[in-house]
Amino acid sequence: MLCLRTGGWLPPDHRVQKKWLEDIVKHVDNNPKDFHPVIKEFKQMIEGDTRLYLLFNSMFDQVPSKKPYGSDPAGHRQVRDYHHMLQLLNHLMTTAPHWSDQEHGAGLVGLPINALFDWPMGTPSGFAIFLDPQVNAMLKKVLNVWGKYLKSPESAEVLGNDSSCWFGPTGRKDLTTVANAAKGTSHSFEEMFVCDPSAPHYGFTSWDNFFTRAFREGVRPVAGPDRDDIIANSCESMPYRTAYNVHRRDKFWVKGQPYSVVDMLGHDELAEQFVGGTIYQAFLSALSYHRWHSPVSGKVIKVYVKDGTYYSEPLFEGFADPHGPDPLGEGTGQAYISGVATRAFIYIQADNPDIGLMCVMPVGMEEVSTCDVTVKEGQHLKKGDQLGMVRI
């Protein structure tokens, strides 16, 4: 699972994100271009449905035109209305997340579309919009188009050696520091990850190829490889929460965010077996490793991906709170999105009968929502075998 600012996906200082968005708005306003076909379809969907037209208009109207809610020097909202939103999306679909030394130390904007929606999604109308199945189906189309660009050679332009690129002095240093910190090592980037530092872009063919980079053999030894009573962490992640004796159904959308097993597991027929069980939840880092591995040896019983939300956050984090919206947004709504977001289910029957049936459930969030599962039902896994990866 992913956490926005805590995991380094967005700057901890909201002013950095605001400045980034100001620059994007200025560029788009000064360089208008025709809409991509998928953005035209998005526009037609909004304008052809009275309910959506009302919600998208009111979503931006409900963001106060005052500090700190993203106003420009004239006091206007940075993202003015849904048409302006579409113009910005149109631009972002042909850009890859870049490194900036200006953002170094304050964080990077690794989720540019989330930065665009940050305040609007905290409004009452935003809550309705980003839960809407029709809107999420359209957002999936938009994100798929962007994902196609991020797999193109053009997207690798941000993987150069200057200060605005990921392999500039600061970018490479931070990538290396984060990867070494997890194991307490002192390796270079090329010693840890499969790459070719002598080739352009370190041998990565695209942004996606870089984002899903693999560790070299032996860099991450599996915990207790010959002991089936040890459950390994399935990904390079930071713990978020552990819950015991979890309920079958609960109000996961309220403060406290209790886990609701049936909702988390998408009403799957296997969900009842996990009632009263234990949930361990963690999130990935923007600068770290984005693949998942099997925590136990066992047989894959069932595997599939369930479409869900991309930018939904609970109402208690938005403008409904009398103290104002939580700038961390979904970052503090981790348990909530486990019941609504796009997610994968990998059910594994452990070889150790004391462990039994477990479910590894990668949860997408914001742009990082493609759960690419690489195992199949019936496959027997050895602890540490790859399960898949998350993609932007």
Q: Short summary of the structure?
A:
By secondary structure, the chain is α+β, with helices and mostly antiparallel strands. The chain has helices at residues 14-30, 37-47, 50-61, 82-92, 112-117, 124-131, 133-150, 169-181, 189-192, 207-211, 261-264, 334-337; strands at 237-243, 279-284, 291-293, 298-306, 343-350, 357-360, 370-373, 380-381, 386-391.
Poorly predicted tracts of residues? 1-6, 103-109
Estimated radius of gyration: 21 Å
Series of secondary-structure elements, N-terminal to C-terminal: HHHHHHHHHHEHEEEHEEEEE
Spatial strand sequence of the major β-sheet: 6-5-4-8
* Content of β-strand: 5-15%
Explain the overall architecture.
By secondary structure, the protein is an alpha+beta fold. The chain is about 30% helix and about 10% strand. Strands 6-5-4-8 form a 4-stranded antiparallel β-sheet, with no helix packed on it. Helix 2 packs antiparallel against helix 7. Mean pLDDT is about 85; it is low at about 1-5 and about 105-110.
